[in-house]
Structures are given as C-alpha cells and as structure tokens.
Amino acid sequence: MSLLTELEAAMPSGSLATDPDVTDRYRFDRTTWVEPGHPLAVAIPGTRAEVAAAVKVAAAHRVPIVPRGAGSSLCAGSQAVDGALTLSTEKLDRVLDLDPVDELITVEPGVLNAEVSAATADEGLFYPPDPASKTFCSIGGNVATNAGGLCCVKYGVTRDYVQRLEVVLADGTVIETGTDTIKGVAGLDLTGLFVGSEGTLGIVTRVGLRLRRRPDGAATAVAAFPTLASAGRAVADIAASGLAPSLLEIMDRATINLVEDATNMGLDRDAAALLLVQSDSPSPLRGQEMDAATVLCDAAGASYVAATDDPDEADQLLQARRMVGWVLEELGEPIWDDVGVRRSRIPQLLARIEDIAARHDAEAFTFGHAGDGNMHPVLLVRRNDPDARRRALAAFDDIIEATLELGGTITGEHGVGSIKAGFLERELGGANLELQRRIKRTLDPDGLLNPGRWL
Questions:
Q1: What is the DSSP string of 240-305?
Q2: Which CATH class for the 219-322 domain?
Q3: Which fold, 3-88?
Q4: Model confidence over 410-425: pLDDT tens digits?
Q5: Does the domain at residues 95-213 carry the CATH identifier 3.40.50.11740?
Q6: Of the CATH numbers 1.10.10.10, 3.40.50.2300, 3.90.1170.50, 3.30.70.2740, which one belongs to the domain with range 324-405?
Q7: Among 266, 342, 358, 396, which residue carries the largest CB count within 10 Å?
C-alpha cells in the first residue's frame, strides 16, 4: 500500500490532510523570510497512539517527518519540507493532571504556554518560563527549543521545569523519561537530552512540568541611560549585588523610539538604552530590592530612574516590551535574531550591532534579557524596498559572527533550526558536533525526524 493509504487506515477520519488549501497553512512558521517546502501530507493526530501509528507508517516508507507545534518558530524549525509528512500536535491540547501539593502539572504538547499558568492560578501556582509569544506558543515547541522568556533571569528556562517526558521515537517506539521526584539520578538524563533537540530526536506527546508558588506582587523600575556603557555597568552592578530581580530587560535607542511611537509613554527618545527591572520577592524585601536597584542605576549614570509597585503601571511597561515584535510586523518583515553573550559584554555587542547595521544600511532594533545576556537583534525589511532583505541578511550573518568573536552563543532560546545550522560547528567544534550527530544516528538512524535542522 502507499504511504497515504496506510496513514488513512491508521488514523481516524479527518486526521490526515492532503488538500493544498489545507496543507499550505502548515507550510510556514514565523520565520517568514525563509521559503518553506511543500509537505506530502499533514497528519493531525489526537492521541499518543495515533502519533506512534503515523510515525511507524512514515518510517516504514522512509518518509521524513516534520514535528510541528503552534508554528511560532523564529528559526525555521517547524517549516514544511518538500515530500515530508508534517505532524501537527495541535489536537494534543489537554491538561491531564494537576498536583498542587507537589506542584506538578502534566500536559500534552499542544497546550499553550499561557494556558498552563491559567490552569494553575486557582491553586496559587504558575509556570515561570514566559516567552513573549506565551499566548500563542505551545509547550511542545517550548520543550523543543528550551524556551526562556522575560523571567528566566530568576526562574530559569524550560529545561529547569521539565520533570517527565513521553516521547515517540523515529521508529514509533514510545518511551518515558524522567521522574516526578525532586531528586533522581537513575540512568542518563534523557529528559535533558530531548529538551532543546528541536524535534530531531523524537516527538514529545506528554510533558510533566514543575510549578512555582505565585508571587504576591511585584515592583518595577525603569531607568534610562545616556550611553551603552553606563547601561552595561548597571546590569553588571545589579548582577554582582546579590539582588534577585525577576526580570532585567534592555532596549536600545531604536527600540525605545519604536515603542514610544506606538505608545506615547513619554520615554526618553535620546537615551542610548532603557532598563526594566522587576522584583517579585515577598514584601518588604521587594521594596528593599527595588530601592537598591534604583540606587545602582543612579550610580551607574542613569539619566532617569523611576519605580512603581502599581500593577497597572508595571503591566503597561511590560506590555510595551512584549509588543515590540507586533509593532515591527506592522512596519514590514522582521528578521529575528537570538544571540547571547556574557552580561559584561552586552554593551560591546550592542555597539557592534549598531556598527553592523550602519555598514549594511540595515535597520536594527535590539532588545532582550540583560539579566542573562540573551539579546534579540531584529532586522526590519521595509515594504517596497526590494534590496532591504539582502542588506538585512548580510547584517544578520555579521551579528552572529560578532557574537562568536565575543565568546557568545548563536542562540539563547529560539533554537538553531535551519537558519543557523551553518554556524553550529563554529561554536561547538567539530568533535563535539560529530558526537551529537552520532547520538542523532543512534535514535534516528535514517535521519527522518525534522530533516535539515540543526544537525
């Protein structure tokens, strides 16, 4: 029998799409500047058994599989591949179990990030990793890329919260990894191996997550700096002070003006950088941490510092930070980058980005997580400028080169996908990369899972 005939027999009616009007919707992710392929078909299973059945059929026919969550990838990690089967986990969207005593929740991969915290709010719990895309990115995609977010400076990233996984391997075998206990060192850490593997080692069908107690409030400060060096000094001083901010974000001048154009918040358009600092520690420690952070910003040379414990004012500031991507999409086609350096080298990286953008006549807007050095330079391709994409992509590559020269990483949380695969050996080294490829061949000897991505 043909692949499609076997898939139709193995899956419920309506779970397999071959009509181009349907499959075209699964070709793209948010990496709009990369042209995707055309899938042979799109499988939309609703259970683990259906995922395993689809994988077994595809493996028997040696047909590659592209696992897909919510399609929010910014590194072309879930785009369709010519002749491959796209397997969407969108129907695997159930919260399966909530244990408020042990602060654990079990979900399927199609559950959205924000839905986890919503499902746990009545128990006074929340799920800390909070990408800016949290309202439309899925937990499965977060696991695939080891996603972070605004609060990771204090709370960590996805890998720090994944306790258990259920995974369908490339031949259709189903395995479980991890433990619900706080400690557990039996065997190798396969859970950690799958987190961040970008769908190249297996397809996640169930995720056990650790939760945290919801803070009882937060205080937020905003500080404007006349130079990148003074902003960097404030970041370094806050990091060295022993304070535990729950959020430490930075925006460069271009991004400040972008936000001010959209919001009219009264931000300093002449500032070289803007810092957002937040503490969610219990009161009165929260106020003490905010006072200390504002003193450090003043001492570093801030031209303006203000703090608030009003939740509406804080939310307005954070929404301004989260909306940057949306504003850029209104103006044209944003090409997102995601790089990381040591916190002490953030000013050097920002200065290099400005120089690179000027040299290529490209528009760059840089913002990100100053607390852990993870920056998001975005190159904007304006409409009706046919040469803008070429200039932006040249700048994109040079920003990655500059990051590596500063001892940094080519991706902090978005993943390698297909857009940065060519830079991976530069960062890891040949022997390291070959070892990872051997692991890939052990789990997926025919190279069927998410072909063309990082490995």
A1: HTT---SEEEEEEHHHHHHHHHHH-----TT-SEEEEEEE-SPTTHHHHHHHHHHHHHHHHT-SEE
A2: alpha beta
A3: 3.30.43
A4: 999 999 999 999 999 9
A5: no
A6: 3.30.70.2740
A7: 396
